[in-house]
Amino acid sequence: MSANDEPLLSVDNLQTSFYTEEGEVKAVNDVSYQIDSGERFAVVGESGAGKSVTSLSLMRLIDDPGRIKGGDVTFRSTSAVATLAREFPEGVATENSSGYIHVDELRAESGSVGSDPGATVRDQPKEVATDLEDGSLHVEAGHVDVLDAPDEAMQELRGAEIAMIFQDPHTALNPVYTIGEQIAEAVRKHLDMGDAAARERAIEMLDRVGIPDAEERYSDYPHEFSGGMQQRAVIAIALSCDPSLIVADEPTTALDVTIEAQILDLLKELSDDEDVAIQLITHDLGVVAELCDSVMVMYAGKPVERSSVEELYYDPKHPYTVGLMSSIPRIGDDRDRLDTVPGTMPDLVQLPSGCSFHPRCPYAEDACIQHEPPLVDTETGEPVEEPDADIHTAACLEYTGDLQDGVEFDVQIREDAAADGGESL
Amino acid sequence: MSHESQRTTTNERGRIRVTGFDTSVFEDRDERFDWQQDESTVSRDRLTRAWERFKRNRTALVGLAIIALMLFTTIFARPIVIEGITVQPFSLAPFDPTNSNFAALNEAPTATHPFGTDWSGKDILSRVMFGGRYSLTIGVITVSIALSVGVPLGALAGYYGGWIDEVIMRLVDILYAFPFLVLAIALIAVLGQGFWNMITALVLVVWISYARLLRGEVLSVKENEYVTAAKALGARDRSIIFRHVVPNAMAPVIVQATLGIGTVVLNAAALGFLGLGLEPGSPEWGSMLARGRSSLIQGQWWITVFPGLAIFLFVLSINLVGDGVRDAVDPQGDTSGGAGVRE
Amino acid sequence: MSLQRYLIKRLLVMIPVLFGVTLLTFSLTKMLPGSPVDYILQFQETTPGLRDQLRAQFNLDEPVYIQYWLWLRDAVMLDFGDSLISDRSVSGAILTRLPKTLLLGFMGFAIAISIGIPLGVIAAINNGNTVDEASRVAALIGIATPNFWLGLMLLLVFSVQLGLFRVIPPDKAVLSPAMLKFVILPAITLGTASSALIMRLTRSSMVEELNKDYVRTAKAKGLSERTVIVKHVLRNSMVSVVTVAAIQVAFIVNGSVVVEQVFSWPGVGRLLIDAITQRDLPVLQAIVLMIAVTIVFVNLVADLLYSWLDPRIRY
């Protein structure tokens, strides 16, 4: 939970590359976005677009030969700030030293706000840490520079503040430990609970995600669960320590369509009830429509469009997005052929000049080969200050006014479609 | 701050249709919009890639060099005469390995005898150089025969399954219960000593690992869908085995075979040491060590050190090469060869 | 399926193998040149009735399969008759020597595991860098060194030249300090090659596991590097390690035959060599059989360990 109207998570100009024998693979190439508390944000794109790497970068789980090259990731959860300030007072930014933990507002237990509690922190981080520990002080506002945090600090954040769900639950779970134990160990570490309490909590979580007979299932092994149940268990693990953000990397791709619907419903319900923000990574536009509020479309490691979900569907701006949407077949579609986006995404080692999409774009002009389009507000043509998805941005020369012929596509909304008819996308 | 109020999820599916992304444009478009990815500089051919990787592995190359050197030394140590024709006339060894010189018994290393002499005055350097022939030939011959027995049996067991598989695998299990050396010892006791008896004994022990390996490979390939596809297209069993299984299985087999030479040489030397090897007195490295123990206690270290060093160097080099082959062919280590050297 | 049912199933499968093992042992010794009767009669006066009496004693007049059955029946009772050389009972001879071999084997195995597994883990964690490379080379050296040569070298340096150890074992009880001191060098000799193999296998199986998805999940949960490696990865690698450890038992039996020769250690291995050179059939049969049966049981234990370690393997 972040204070006031600041977004929970801000990613600014993130760059992550992999250094392989073929060259530098720019998997995440200047990506910016933000997520508010409780918001459900989607990162969409084809395989290889850099979506998963973006999420792993967030959690600092990038290993050799990859490296986070640059950018800022700012996480404004007050509980995260409080935990880190308590455990790592040396990391708090003070007047005399820089740090990755920024405590901006403190509140004393008595309820009064000191004249400049921030000053207290800046002078005496260790005393503040003790006070936070015994509860006489509370953090009201603050932020963490995730990319500057040391590994031990990241271990406190992972699982407790930001949790992750992966694509294939079968391999994501350790086959030699019971499901219950895999939940309990996270709880024991982050919530400082003893064995019995952790077990209770784990059973509670299993129940919460809709696994029947939670108490017996606690002692079962992953291979004794079906695919859908396994994914629910993974969600239970993610949820167990009350994170404020869950990053879900293609959580339903490996599951049947019917199970997929259940999992999505579960995620929606949990997000609403527990006020957990979700960053969903997917290639499936249907899932996005079902679950999310805002979306960012990625192509070749860069964001090409960012907007709210309604705007994306009713008023897409970037040709790539349009291409993706027109390739979805629908019942009642009377076209003879599907318009798919021809060609494949370039290998991230070698990108086309100018706009990376130009070889596959029907509206490409000479300007597109020469200039790489910046991500701009589609109304004004100017780059935006904050990567807020309420402002519809797209990376196409059309919106900076440099395109001569313009782009032409049409979005029709059929008024006569049945309410629940039609297959899922 | 919750986002509930701003959500207007639509329940109606299929309401939105986008038109205008006109793909026909691509057909007539000017070429400058087409962009081709450069060919990757990394070669695609498996064999070339493997060779490239092998060349980069310095330790493997060192091993190869040492083996080449030993091979050279042992071939040219003494003349080779086949059917009366002198095939190889050179004599790198300074003395005749079988020549006793009772004037120079148990001499420590000197310039004349760089490796010293043994209890009957024979020059140890010459014997070590010459003795390499036994080890090398035993190693190579044993592995070759074991391959030609184990590979077909393993392939048959894997491919046909059923009772053939059961029988062969039970046989393997039974043989596996006897440790390598113990079984070899027992077989030699039955067959008697001598070159071909030793090879027979070793072959009978070694073929098992190749059979198991092949069977495993065949089983995993069998599961592959392309075999089902080939069958559906009417391919005959034999061609399936050859065309699909063999190329895939080649890699771990080559690795095992290379390492196998090392194992065989070690065990042949052990048999020699125990006095169960070739005729006593032959300059086989292991047999040379048999008498070494008593000399050792009297302080004549050279009788033990040099032949043992030769064995060590040879087996080490073979293992380096074998590892190099394994890394070259399969850098991620997913083949089923494993680190196991069945001793 | 529960552990008990799995155990029973494995026991059933083991029976034909045990059968085959006994059959093979029996056939091998049957194929040895010369019969025990001729051997004994070398040293004695041959009186008419003696030959027949001896033949009856060794059941040589019966058809082969009866001989096998009789032999087997006695073997199960651990009655292998008397040694041709020493006139003692075979079982007795073996039993006196067994503790010494067990001590040596056990110490060798202990050394192998306590060096091999930790080094393997360290190498895996340091995958790719110099520590890893160095350990690889060390392992290769360990594997390539002939154990008899290593033993001789150790004898040379530490016993002959430095005088730190005796050259011949003392004639004391197995667990006496003098014996325990002496067994150090042989145990090191025995354990070296084993530890190298165990190290390599631990390393490769850990590296494989480290690339798996559940490791990423564990890290994403915020567990420390150490917890991830020890609690999650190592546990999954254990199956492969148990495999190789089980193989090492056979390896150590092999090794002890040779190592006992080098150090004149009065164990079962030396007895085996003596039995072969002296053509002492009953002893030979007994030892070979005993070794094989032990290995079969060791494999059974290994299988049970697998299914305990990995809950998926209980089909």
From TrEMBL, chain C:
Membrane-protein topology: Multi-pass membrane protein
The organism sits in which domain of life?
Archaea
Q: Where in the cell is it found?
A: Cell membrane
Q: Which InterPro entries match?
A: BPD_transp_1_N, MetI-like, MetI-like_sf
Q: Which PROSITE patterns does this one have?
A: ABC_TM1
The main place the protein resides is: membrane
Q: What keywords were assigned to this record?
A: Cell membrane, Membrane, Transmembrane, Transmembrane helix, Transport
Give the GO cellular component terms, alphabetically.
plasma membrane
Q: What's the protein here called?
A: Glutathione ABC transporter permease GsiC
